[in-house]
Amino acid sequence: MSVDYFGKYFNDGGFDFSALINDDFFQPVRILYNAKHYVSATKLLVVAIDSMSFIEYGNIPENTFIKWLNEYSEIGNLDITPEELWEQRNSLLHMSNLSSRKVQQGKVRSLVAHVGKIPPNVNLDEPNTGYYELYELIRLVGQAVGNWLNTYGDQREKIHNFVERYDLIASDARMQYIHYETSHDS
To answer: What pTM value is reported for the model?
Structure first.
């Protein structure tokens, strides 16, 4: 049995790509962020980047996470690099810490997210650490998604790959609730 999750996202203007991405990726991040589960929100945000980069490029030998950020985001505005965020992603998803192998080897700066503006009297002088405001990263990724989705208007041939690859993504839009009777329902 398949679920017609795409039908929900068609309207008079056509297919609402941004609503689909919001429902599957940004809404869960928003819920966690608002509940002050910042590490979990960060984990889901980097998983979203993984998913969107797979949808865009497929399974290629190149690091699609970094490629997608380089192509669609202005991550440098946060004074961090895609490579640093990739290493933070690896650390968070695989070990729930901030020290990936490359960070431990001193090849890449460790990243530390914070919430809210750092007061001017706080001196963050750790040369091997980059700091970024989590909400600003969420906004930046949202803008990158907008840039990415805009390419579908100009490059209509990408839509087939989007549908084919999106079908491989575990998605709340495709989760089914199946009610079945139990002895308590009688």
So the answer is: 0.88
